[in-house]
Structure formats: structure tokens, C-alpha cells
User: Fold these one by one.
Assistant:
Number 1:
Amino acid sequence: MKEIIDRDSSVEIHDKFISTHVRQTIEAKTEDSFIEYVKRFKVDSTTIFADVSNFSFRCIIDYHDEINGPSCMDHVVNYICPISIECDEWIRNCGCEMDKYSFYDFMAIRSVDFFNESINIEEKLNILINSSLVSPGIRSNGYIKFQIFDSGTNVFSSIDIPEKIKLFFSPFKDGQGYELQLRIRHKVKCGDVKFWYEIIGCENIIEDAFKDIFEKFKELPFINHIYEAKLP
């Protein structure tokens, strides 16, 4: 009788395990979807791991704990923070030399990321590309001063372009915006001017944005376990 009871009991436990065990990996497309999924299925042992090396979060719903011991860890939801278009454009072109026409076109397209006081840079670059450069730009009081000649009016004049421009954009798609500064660089050779730019603090902006999301997740009342870690 004892053997039959044990056998039936083990079968009952096994059937229960099959009916409740979830083996599924979900790829969340948005931060909100990731949060909602975790909130819906979380248990006491649910754990989130944040990997700053690839800006991703992995939540193991059925993670093991000190009470229940080892777990299968088969119910997982992942979220990779998507780099925004504007962030990708600014970072990818940072340090790349452009002729004045290409530089103007790029700045005109990305002027949506300028602070209001930086908007006039587009107008000034437009004047510059439609004039002949007389002398190299001279830095003075935060501006680059160019001597130009307008062949249409036969007039010599000067134009001041801000050396630094304030930017505001989100490193991640649909994420929080951050303020940065852009520094314009240039060189002149045989009357031909080349422009490029540097973004001050560019190397840390994505990492800082990721850590801010990490801190936000830590504050969620239904998240009990969250760590900075890279899983194998």
C-alpha cells in the first residue's frame, strides 16, 4: 500500500508541475511593455538583471531563491533599449569632416534637436555656403568669425557662428531627453572649409540614460530583486 501511495503521489506532483510550469521567452518591444509583463507574472523570486554592456534588461520570472531552492528559470522576458534615430545620427557623424554644403544639410535636418537659442545657426550657415570664404575663421568670445564675400552684391562682410550649440534629445527611442553641448570645429585649406563637430559628454550619454532606467525600475513597488550583471 505504501508503494502505491508514493507512486500516485509522485504522479500527482509531476502533473501539477507540468500544468503550472511556463517555458517561454518574450522579447518586449517597449519599456512599458516590459514593465507590464513583469507586473502581470511576477512572483516573490522574480529577478531583473541589467546589462550595461548592451543596454538590455532580462527578467527571469521563475528565478530561484533561498526558500524554494533551484528553479528551471524558463520564464523570461527581455528588453533591449533601442537607440533613438536622433542619437544614432549625432553619434555616428560625430568627428566626421564635411564640406560646408553637407554640414549645412546635416544641421538643417537635425535642427529639431537644437535649443531655441541655437536655431539661428541654420540661418548663418546658409549665408556662409552661399558666399566665398575670404579668411579662416577666428575664435572669439564663444564664436567663430568668418570673413566672407558675396559675389552677387560684391560686398565683403563677416559672420559669427556659435562655437557651441545646445542640444536636447533622447538617447533611447521614446525615452527621457538629455541636454548636451556640441562644439563646432573647422579647418580651411586652399579656400575650402571643412566642418565637423564634437559632442561634449557624448561617450557617457547612453550609459547614463540606461542607468537612469535602472534606477527607475528599482523604485517600482513590485520589483523586489534587481541587479547590474551580465548573464552568460
Number 2:
Amino acid sequence: MFLRLSTSKRLRREWSRFALYMAIGAFTLPPLATPVGAQGSLDRFTGAWIGAQNWKTDTPSPYAREGQNVSVLIGNVGNELGGTMTPFLGFAEGVRFTDVRISGNQLRATGVIRPPQSPPNPDEWKDSVLATFVFTIDKGELVGTANLTMGNVPWLRLEYRLRRP
């Protein structure tokens, strides 16, 4: 059920791409809305997480796989907090967390399906997708939801249950 290590060329290529996006994203993420002085709250959420993405909608995509394995990296660099999730909706580039905030015991973020430093393209359908994430820590697991809109129209709901590797 959880992500397994493999020596396949495709998986190594995807992990390399993911590492590159994280390295680039570390320098291009938006400022943190919550002061870094709340270090205890930040430490609970930062780091690597693995687990499953489940579709919670009446009409899932025909390509939807229940329990799709995902990896999440949430990082704090200076006064910035951000992260990525791969894969996302089956796309290897995943989703990049932007506008990350910690409010009480919740981490809230919006996400875009586009590599860092890629300008929005109005002709690309993925650029009209906005994901709103809400995560909490429950018994050592990162549990949350993502509500997706396309344009301003509600589209999909996803649920997550992640653990540290």
C-alpha cells in the first residue's frame, strides 16, 4: 500500500525530478503567514510523509485509483514554508504547495499543478485547477483533505492519511 523503493529507470527519473523541484521550490516559495517563532507547530508538520490519496467524490475519474501512493515534503527554509506532493492526480510533476499557513493545529495550503517558476498558461487546463489543502496531525499521522476547483467551480475532493517513512 505504501510507496516501495524500486530500481526502475522511470522511478529514479521521477524521484530526480522531484528532488530538483524541491531544490528550486526552496528558493521560490511565498513568505510564511505564521511567524517562525511558533517552531513547535512547524516541527510537527515539516519533513517527509508517505501514504495514500483517496478519491472522495460521487463521480471519480475513470483513471482514478483508490489508495494511490503519494509522497509529501514540507519544508521550512528561513521564514518560508512550502512543499510538494507527488504524484498528484496521476501527474508525475505533482502539486506545489503555495500560501502555506499554520493555524492552531492545522496546516492550510493552496496548491498548483505546475513546476516552480513556470508562468501560468491560460491554454493549459491544469493551470485552472486550484487545490485547497487542510492537514492535521492525528496520532502521529498527517491526515487531511484537498478540495479542488477548476476555475471557480468545485470539482473533486481527495482525502489523505500519511505517515513518516
Number 3:
Amino acid sequence: MIRKPVLLNGLILSAIMLLFLTASAKASEDDVMATVRQWGHSLGTGHIDSIMELISDGFSSPDIENKAAFRKAIEGLIKNGFLEDAEIDSGAAEVLIEKDFATVSHVRVEPESAEQRGVLLRLTLVDEEDRWRITSLEAEPLPEPDHIDIYMRGNDIPPPAPLKVVKRRDVHVQEHFVLPRPDENMKDVPLNTSFFITLATGDEIDAISKNSITVLLKPENADSFYILEQDQTFTNGYTGKIFDIDFYRGRRQDRFGKNAIGIYIDGPAELKPETRYTIAVDAVSRRGAAIPEDDGTWSFTTQAKPAVHNI
């Protein structure tokens, strides 16, 4: 008779500890990525002091022996223009935390010029109590399309083709698969719908700038508001992720278009019932291509508010 409460209390305590450990791990991962994103932003702006503030005093890597040497290397990249308006993309980053150290892989650094080749970074961070800082870095060149040299050898570089919003009919997927979500002229859209949009370039030597993507939502007879602003900033309580399609469920990237990018957005509250919404997506590519207005704008209508029945 006495053991049951003791056993029950033990189970409750174990559950609380599991929740605490899970929350702590999530908080640590968020803290690690906050440092990576802030450092990436500083790299893109070329502000050397902000870049170095997030580098540990004990920094060392296979090619750079200490923090002072790393500062000189970064100053060289800033001087030659490699980091000017560069895009640092951590959307597909993978985080592994072991005690006071964290490894973050798949961080892409892509210079603004299509003629310069980007790099893929693997960062090691250390928890220095006040915050996580980068203590080591490894870089390797991003893979380059085999055919890009065909265009770059001569001066006759073709103009960039327009970007496009990928539609379900473009990829021949199953009838139940909605793309984009919500789709054009779709009716009875759930009030708690999420958003999934795929963008693709018109040619293989171009790439969409993830930091340029914006998504605007306008309810009928009401003010419009952004749910995604530039620099991959989700606003008005919305959350989400921007990612390369080849990371999505193992599907081949070319099924969705050339250099395709997925945008997933989830909302904090329900949309207005029986309301027509217009969604406007904008983005630019490395070569200056944009989404035509008629392709990047469409409307959908939400469902009626569910009836409440007294029991």
C-alpha cells in the first residue's frame, strides 16, 4: 500500500527531469545557432570587430593557428571583396552538442558575385559561460556545376531567366499534394493553415538569395503584413524555415526545378474566417533575376468559422 505513491512520485520525478533535460538541450542548440547567425550577419556586413567578438581566444584550426592569424585572414577576405554582401546560409545547418562543445556543419558562405566560388563551413563552438564562441573552423569549396565554365569563359553570358514559384502541375505530384500551400484560388482553406512555397531559378548557373525572400499577406479589406522579411526574418509571430529542396525528404532537387528552395511558415493564430487573402512572394537571384509579379502573387479564401454546438 505504501509503495504505490512512492513509485508514482518516482515516475513523475523522472518525467519532470526528462522534460527539463529536453528543454535544456533545445535551449543550448538555440543558443549555439544564435551565435552562428549573429556571426554570419557580421561576416556579411564585413564589420571586423563584430566578427572577432564571437571568436574564442583559444581559437585554432588546421590552417590557422590562432585568433590573431584568423583576424588577418578575415581582413584579407574583406579587402578583396569576397565577403562584401556575401550570403551566409545556416538554414540547413546540423548541430551536435557534447558537454561544453558544439559542432555546426553545413553552413554555406556564398559571395555576391557568381564568378566567385563559395565555401561550406564546419564550425566548432565552446560554451564560455556568457555565450557560445567559435573555437575552430574548417572550410571546403562549394561544389560547382560542371557546365558553369561554358558561360564564364567568354563575355557572352546569357541574361538571367526569371525566378518562378513552383506549382503542383510543374512537378507532377499526387493530387492530394498542394503546391504552393495554400494554392491559387483555393477555397475553404483551414484557419490554422501553414504555408509551403517552393521557388526555383530559370537557369542552372543562377542561385536564389535566401536573404532576399519576403512573403506578404493581405486580408481583404484590411492592412497587409509581412510573415517573412529579408534576412530570413519571420515576423508577426510567424515561425518557419528556408531550405534547399535537396535536403527535403530525399527528393531530387531537379524534380522541383533548378536550384529549388523551400519555404515553410507556420502561424501563431488562426486566419480570419471566410476571408480572401492575397499572398505576395518576392526574391532576387545572384544574377539579378526576380519573380514576375503575376507569378509571385495569388489569392485564396479561408473556410467558415466552425460552428459551436451546445451539448
Number 4:
Amino acid sequence: MSSKSASNCVSALRRAMRAIRGQYSRSVRSPRSAKGREWLLDNYYLLAREGAAVLKALRACPPLPVDVDGKPRLLGFFGDYIRNAGDVDTHSLASALAEISITSAETEQLRLFWSAALILSASRAACAPLPDTRELG
């Protein structure tokens, strides 16, 4: 991965982790902001641990193909997959991966970029506005 694409990826993940940490802190302090974010309260420690591991692993990541935006191609692929797949299962993921031609270096980094894409997705979910439950009742 070029130093620019690595830097872009690291910056995006650091922003995501700050957003997750901020929402977690608000949820801990305020029961009102915690309502609907129980998943974050229950799983924050996993996100924090995985985020730190991904950031550390990115420092040792070899050069990888990038997309037109200069981001690692696998990060974009997994991000799109997570947004569009609905239910994620091994078969559908394997089928989607078979449709693109990945390099051997990318094959070695599949888990890393899957984890990175999940963290970015968790950040979007943690920071998304919650629905007004008064309208549902």
C-alpha cells in the first residue's frame, strides 16, 4: 500500500474510532443518548481493541492496489459489501470476492480490511441519528 493510501486509511480509521469513543462517552454519561445504543455500550471494548489492532497492522501492510480515490481497493470493496449485502454469510462473501481479481498480497490482507470496514461501518451506525420511538408506539 502506498504511504498516501496507508495514511488515508489510518486517518479514516482514527476518525472512526474517535467518533465511536465520543458516542460511547455520551451514552455512558446520559441515559437519554444511550437509549437505542445499547449495542455500543455492550461492545465498545471490542471495537476499541479491534480498532487498535487494525491501526497497528496497517503500519506493516505491504503496498496494495488502490481505487480511484487512493484508498485501498479492499477497503472499498468490503465497505460496499457491508452496505449492500444485507445478511452477511461466508458463501455470499466468497462469491463477491470471486467476482473481483485480487492479488496475492490482497489475499493476505483480507481479514485486516474486513475488520477495518466493519469498524468504519460501526462508526456510521454509532453516530447515526436514532429514530424517534414516540412515533412508533
